[in-house]
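Justification of resources, computational component.

The compute hours requested in this renewal are based largely on the per-chain cost of generating structure records like the one below. Each record pairs the submitted sequence with a full structure-token output. That output is archived, and it is also reused by downstream analysis tasks.
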Amino acid sequence: MKKYVEKNDLIVLIDSNFKKYIVDITSKTDKIKGVGVLDPISLIGKEFGKQIEIGNKQFWILLPSVQDKLQNVHRRAQIILSRDAAHIIINCSIESGQYVLEAGIGSGSLTIALASAVAPGGKIISYDVRNDFIEYALKNIKKASLEQYVITKLKDITKEIEEKDLDAIILDIPNPWEAIENAWNALKIGGYLCSYSPLISQVEKTVKELRKHNFIEIKTFENIQRELVVSSHGTRPSFDMLGHTGYLTFARKILQS
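The structure output for this chain reads:
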């Protein structure tokens, strides 16, 4: 485990309100919103875990976790939150060395989580029909230092999937039911499919299509998260409950019996 910041490190600065700022030590002196003018080189030699002063503010300096990277994603399109990303990774059994395809790169939030899971031996192949989304997402992915694990393609998954024997396919598109046949053909036997949809009508069409193909373990989940506020006076639920984000539908490929 590293004790001190070194050249080429990616670090996270966390202020007293737990706001996070990802900093690339190799980047040029720049004005960082909420921090001020910072020369990243000046952080070399600082001890991880210690609080340092930048300007008139105090920051803890740490190596960034996957959660830190996800919370630092700049949003252009709606992102898949970490609670749903974790559910996708576990229920699709995604691990190091696998090849996973996602359709709908958005702002790159899920891509970052998936790339962290498949590294260092695997790859994430990401299809999107909009090149501007791909370019924007790649900025977030590069900021998270995970670009070497991601391949992007300007493609429509409902038309074609080039890759074969994929470990998992994740659909974050408005019409996932139109990609089910291509997904089945591209998955390995036992491979997983996940569809993320904000509307229940999308889920119904997707499940109906899944049942026409050789998929088992078809299940749909909704994750509702509520933080508990623990103080010296007692414990209560937070007033800011994180409610509905989307529905997650999972399925697993088999051969025809």
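The longest strand covers residues 187-197. DSSP finds six helices and 15 strands in the chain.
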